[in-house]
From TrEMBL:
This is Acyl carrier protein. One of its GO terms (molecular function) is acyl carrier activity. The gene is acpP. Carrier of the growing fatty acid chain in fatty acid biosynthesis. GO terms for cellular component: cytoplasm. The lineage of its organism: Bacteria, Pseudomonadati, Pseudomonadota, Gammaproteobacteria, Lysobacterales.
């Protein structure tokens, strides 16, 4: 899955699960400051992302995530590692 495909999936999840207008979501968008995604919402988001990998996601992988691009980078890295 490409980074663009991951971005599109993340936008869809944020829109469907948190009713965030897709026009507000860009790679540099900050989760907490710009989208009001708090820690409870972040756990929910991780659960929603699990099907992209087909396995459990470790919350530790997301400790440094602050922006939508950070999510894309973490998921892309996990997918790359999984393929290797």
């Amino acid at each position: 899955m490409t980074k663009n495909e991951l971005f599109d999936r993340i936008v869809a999840i944020l829109h469907e699960s948190f009713e965030i207008d897709p026009s507000r979501i860009q790679p540099e968008t900050r989760l907490y400051e710009d989208l009001d995604i708090d820690s409870i919402d972040a756990v929910d988001l991780i659960v929603q992302l699990k099907p992209l990998l087909g396995r459990s996601l470790q919350p530790d992988a997301f400790k440094s995530v602050r922006t939508v691009q950070d999510i894309i980078d973490v998921l892309h890295g996990l997918l790359r590692d999984q393929a290797a």
